[in-house]
Design a protein that fits this description.
single chain; 159 residues; alpha/beta; 5 helices; 37% helix
């Protein structure tokens, strides 16, 4: 089963780019070593991501999200819980195309992976800056571990 790990965000806006930073951390420090896992820097999203999502057997998206929690808080939303979170939190976005739009495209074409999760990280600051704030940078290893845990669970039939 091909697993797509998609990090999204704008790295010019401090914590907003955390999804991309998690992808970079996985690539540089212990990415799951497997031919079936694809790490993809989705940047600020576009409709071109519909293809890789359609080709995936499972999907993990990493992004900054308003969780009404302390900065750096990591939460995982799986399956229907992910869909509900996305549909219920249509925040204004700097992304060209929202993840909700990509979900809608995938649902229309029946390519929305049954195994899917959103690893969401509460930002502290979404403003000009090349690096995430301290609490969000400190959350990157936890987000990486959550991703590894999801993959282990899916491979052992826990999801």
């Amino acid at each position: 089963m091909k697993i797509l790990i998609l990090g999204i965000g704008n790295t010019l806006l401090s914590d907003e780019g955390v999804g991309v930073h998690v992808i970079q951390a996985l690539a540089n420090h212990g990415s799951p070593d497997d031919e079936e896992i694809e790490l993809l820097d989705g940047g600020t999203l576009s409709f071109t991501l519909a293809g890789p999502i359609a080709d995936a057997g499972a999907l993990i998206v990493v992004d900054a999200a308003q969780l009404d929690a302390l900065p750096g808080t990591v939460r995982v939303f799986e399956s229907i819980e992910m869909d509900s979170f996305l549909l219920g939190n249509r925040k204004s976005s700097v992304h060209e195309v929202g993840l909700t739009d990509l979900m809608s495209i995938a649902r229309l074409t029946d390519t929305w992976p049954a195994q899917r999760a959103l690893v969401a990280i509460q930002p502290a600051k979404v403003d000009w800056g090349d690096d995430p704030t301290g609490p969000v940078a400190a959350a990157v290893p936890e987000a990486c571990e959550q991703i590894r845990s999801l993959i282990r669970g899916w491979r052992h039939g826990a999801a």
